[in-house]
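Annotators were shown the component list below and the corresponding predicted structure, then asked to write short factual statements about the assembly.
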Amino acid sequence: MRLTRQCESAKVKSNIKMDGPVNTDAQDAFHAYMVARGLKSTRQREIILDEFLKAGAHLSTEELYLRLREQHPHIGYATVHRTLKLFAECGIAEPRHFGDGQTRYESSAGAQHHDHLLCTVCGAIVEFENPQIEALQELVARQHGFRIERHRLELYGRCRKCQ
Amino acid sequence: MRLTRQCESAKVKSNIKMDGPVNTDAQDAFHAYMVARGLKSTRQREIILDEFLKAGAHLSTEELYLRLREQHPHIGYATVHRTLKLFAECGIAEPRHFGDGQTRYESSAGAQHHDHLLCTVCGAIVEFENPQIEALQELVARQHGFRIERHRLELYGRCRKCQ
DNA sequence: CATCACCTGAAATTGAATATCAATAGCACC
DNA sequence: GGTGCTATTGATATTCAATTTCAGGTGATG
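Structure shown to annotators:
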């Protein structure tokens, strides 16, 4: 009975409490997707979305699960897993497969396409974008008769701190 | 008792039977590595190396295992797996992780570094090399304070036939 | 040709992703 | 607010590839 009102106020609050570019966009997109598909808005999904947006990094299911557990020990791993897949389906998260065998999800809020620099020592991930490289990729593909649908470019090395 | 002689003659024969640029290089590198590490040259390893070089493609452990089984049903999956890792350690094979969740090994014999074009329809894999892209990668990395150790560039799309 | 450390192969284990299913909880309607 | 339908949850089981284990087998060396 309280929940409907809580949801609304939560949305408003998040506009206030978060600094920088806020992601009510993501929340709206998520809710729109849910409504369109006849899915339900649940407490867990709200919490997971909140935590995911707050983290703002490249999180694996497990990392997000562990973070959530601190405040919400009742949320199960399977729910985190399914919810992240939901995020991917509705376009507010991008699944990424780096070398470590775990799927990581990255918030696609606001961000354009980009590639990644990964530190092999401390695990830091830096995003970058380079139109020249993209153009050359197109060129190479055309030379081989390919039409590119997507690509993956990852540069592995040591970051400034770890050299 | 017969085996020692067989090994020797096998090496000679493979020089004769294979057309094109032969990979006794790879075989030599492998043997050198084995000797240096006190590892042993076994029939299975010879057979697996032979088959691997003969295939000359991007093979997963399972694919290679299945191929081997036709002629050598006695060779176990675990042995193929371990031997491919050995190849990787001694530098005659490169492990690759494309999107499909399986590790593929590629012969590094003769080939310089290169990247891949992958057809999302028929699974064809084309190798390419582009120094301009490599140079730009270096540049981008430097701009972010990174020193690149390795990279991964994969272009996914439709090949000429599959458009 | 004996010895020993390495190797093999079947089976067990791991780790991440995903499926299962009974219990729970939204949501729409009364 | 109550009711029923249906999606969701969370503990657990399953899957699938990679990897480890271990008893028995087999190279290399003296």
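Statements collected:
1. Confidence is low (pLDDT under 50) at residues 1-21 of chain A.
2. Residues 3, 40-43, 60-62, 78, 81-82, 85, 101-103 of chain A lie near DNA strand C (CB under 10 Å from a C1').
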